[in-house]
Design goal:
By secondary structure, this protein is mainly beta. The protein contains three helices and 14 strands.
Length: 270
């Protein structure tokens, strides 16, 4: 049995799903799923990768493309520090926008890492495509077929931080957080009314409680992610809402990563 026959047999058995990956020095959005090309002789990394085309545009075969958004978030300043996976809202918002909700403890900083990626729905489909069409694709550009590389997954990776930086102490005088036994004055600032027992409470935020902040991201090239107090995104190109007093944020550089496959010269032996 030849190597080519062995690969096809494993593909049919759904047992040929491995890929190679690279996340060093890959600019965001430089590559797309289905891109094929090669690294010239004498070169070693994807800085010199030459994209020859995309198999989706060639319409060589029907295959599914899957899109993913996932991340992790952490906080070392909470009473119980955490580092845990996170998921976005289940619905993709207009403009291919994704919204993430994060709980921020009082006076703490929360960080998160967000990943957007697209990939072949089944890696075996990519292997089969390269086996069946790799020789012809390589001949179009006068390169050896075993030099041809097919990108099966491409994505971005970015860090974000949000910090409740308000240095005013919790409780009075920020706003009374405990019942006050006194006559109600509609014009007294900061108060909203009575409860059932006739006690009056402050409408100021209780800084003993965490806040919910929202991160708006998108896999679309050119989209500028941002933090917000509301999960409702604004259209790209319009003024982004500012944050309330006492909130600061940091947005890290977006970097890319890819997975790819490549055949061996024996796959094309006569």
């Amino acid at each position: 049995m030849t190597l080519r026959q062995l690969r096809l047999s494993n593909i049919d058995a759904d047992a040929h799903n491995h890929t190679w990956n690279e996340n060093r020095g890959i600019p965001s959005h430089k590559f797309a799923v289905g891109d094929y090309g090669y690294i010239p002789d004498g070169k070693k990394d994807f800085d010199d990768f030459i994209v020859l085309g995309n198999v989706a545009k060639k319409e060589l075969a029907k295959f599914a493309i899957s899109h993913h958004a996932y991340g992790t978030h952490w906080c070392q300043e909470a009473s119980i520090p955490w580092d845990a996976p996170m998921k976005p809202f289940p619905q993709v918002l207009p403009g291919d926008v994704t919204c993430w909700a994060l709980v921020v403890p009082p006076y703490a900083e929360v960080g998160c890492q967000i990943i957007h990626s697209s990939s072949f729905g089944h890696v075996a489909d990519a292997w089969r495509l390269l086996l069946l069409h790799g020789r012809d694709l390589a001949m179009e550009h006068d390169i050896k077929p075993e030099k041809l590389m097919l990108i099966t997954q491409a994505g971005t990776n970015q860090d974000f931080y949000i910090h409740d930086f308000d240095t005013r102490p919790p409780g009075p005088p920020r706003g009374l957080s405990h019942p006050v036994h006194q006559p109600f004055d509609f014009y007294q600032p900061g108060f909203s009314g009575f409860n059932d027992s006739g006690h009056m409470f402050s409408s100021f935020p209780d800084k003993t409680a965490p806040a919910i902040m929202y991160l708006i991201t998108s896999p679309t090239p050119g989209f500028d992610p941002y933090w917000s107090h509301t999960p409702i995104p604004v259209p790209q190109g319009t003024t982004r809402p500012g944050l309330n007093h006492g909130w600061t944020y940091r947005i890290g550089w977006s970097t890319g990563f890819i997975h790819w496959i490549q055949l061996h010269s024996e796959d094309f032996a006569e």
